[in-house]
Specification:
This protein is an alpha+beta fold. The protein is about 40% helix and about 20% strand. Helix 4 packs parallel to helix 7 (about 170-185).
């Protein structure tokens, strides 16, 4: 009996599109896991459709976070501290990863522009309990950038180890604005105060006590009254008085040129709901 050859599953147009959209942002192994193919199969397919094996075909400022000396750098340091991720491959390389909901894709495009990058932002759909959710993903394959972020407190598995950065005091408002855009909320309650105004709060979450206390210390220094609550080893900072909320909004957004649009619009709504006596 002759030798029976191995049957190779034919590549589909959908798989080719997935490879093209995610190449450079995912490793061959990661692509293979998603498509249920081997790493070698993915590599051969990359060659067949004319893509280089190297993920470094994209250009960007690898040293962007080396020194935090501008509004934009401080803001993105804060945003990545809240929503970003440093992935250590354990093979001598690291990458920076950021995943947002699909509606915030334009915000990722701002980061790509800041670092003078040309890498793609990939879109994904996933189903959870029967509901379909869309997300957008940016991956920057750069050990240098990852190490600079680690130096500024954004560590791998940062949830419990993140630290408040040692940066210029004038840049702290931009850093905290990034934190709140990533892991905070501006909340307006339909209930009214005794004086007839809407109840509201500005809140921030962190699993690191040291990190959340760094934010609170800064708020204390500018006259903001806030409280930190320990809820199951996660720390919840809240500022609820209108005077404190007014100070936070005015401080964080003063002369700012980068922010998450929907939260900036929410801050303007909050200001409009405050008594005119609080206007600075």
């Amino acid at each position: 009996m002759g030798e029976v050859g191995r049957i190779t599953k034919r590549w589909t147009n959908e798989e080719d599109l997935f490879v093209k959209n995610n190449y450079g942002n995912m490793t061959c192994s990661e692509i293979g896991e998603k498509l249920m193919r081997t790493k070698m199969s993915v590599r051969k397919r990359l060659e067949f459709i004319g893509l280089s094996k190297s993920p470094n075909k994209y250009s960007y400022k690898k040293d962007y976070f080396k020194t935090i000396d501008s509004e934009h750098k401080a803001y993105w340091l804060g945003f990545l501290s809240a929503d970003g991720c440093i992935v250590d491959t354990n093979k001598g390389s690291k990458r920076v990863q950021l995943i947002l909901k699909e509606d915030d894709r334009d915000h990722l495009e701002k980061l790509v522009k800041c670092i003078d990058g040309n890498m793609p932002i990939t879109l994904r759909k996933q189903t959870v309990n029967g509901n379909v959710y869309g997300s957008c993903r940016l991956v920057i394959h750069s050990t240098e950038m990852a190490n600079d972020l680690i130096k500024h407190g954004v560590t791998p598995r940062k949830t419990f180890t993140i630290k408040f950065p040692d940066i210029s005091e004038k840049l702290i408002p931009h850093y905290i604005r990034g934190l709140i855009d990533g892991d905070g909320s501006l909340y307006i309650n339909n209930k009214k105060t005794k004086t007839g105004y809407s109840k509201m709060s500005i809140e921030l979450l962190s699993a690191s006590e040291e990190h959340i206390n760094g934010v609170k210390d800064y708020f204390d220094s500018i006259g903001v009254i806030s409280n930190v609550y320990d809820i199951k080893n996660h720390y919840h900072l809240m500022a609820c008085s209108m005077k404190s909320i007014n100070i936070i909004i005015d401080t964080l957004y003063k002369n700012s040129t980068i922010y998450l649009e929907r939260k900036y619009e929410k801050s303007k709504v909050m200001k409009n709901l405050m008594p005119s006596s609080l206007a600075i």
